[in-house]
Amino acid sequence: MVAVERAMVRVRRRQTRRALASEAAVDPTLTALADAVEGEQQAARPCSVTSLAELLSVDQPRASRLVAKAVAAGLVRRIADQDDGRRSLLELTEAGWAHVEEVRLRRQERFAAAMRGWSAKERADFAELLTRFVDALDG
């Protein structure tokens, strides 16, 4: 378990430095926001500032500031909630989708480089085990 903990600390440090999104022209916090909105859209779940705050593990005022910044950057837009007229929902704009895809491709390139020399079975086993590990952390 010590080796797993050490490896996870190294991963967290790299994320803290935003190493996986460092080449992006957009603020890394907006990349995290766009990733979260995209995940909710893909899952067909409504995404509000409140749900975004929970997804990003920030308080609601911070989430509101991030959303305002993302709207100003053209990554997301607010739309009226058809079930509750007092609330607005968030969705990615075309530019937001393009940004998410650009960052996703950059991440995949970095991961592929890190796993160069791994067999297809090793990559598949790693993906399965990592997914199980993350699912257990969430559960």
From TrEMBL:
Gene3D superfamilies: Winged helix-like DNA-binding domain superfamily/Winged helix DNA-binding domain. PROSITE patterns: HTH_MARR_2. Residues 1-135 form the HTH marR-type domain. GO terms for biological process: response to stress. It holds the Pfam family MarR_2. InterPro entries: HTH_MarR-typ, MarR/SlyA-like, WH-like_DNA-bd_sf, WH_DNA-bd_sf. One of its GO terms (molecular function) is DNA-binding transcription factor activity. It comes from the Bacteria. This is MarR family protein. The lineage of its organism: Bacteria, Bacillati, Actinomycetota, Actinomycetes, Pseudonocardiales.
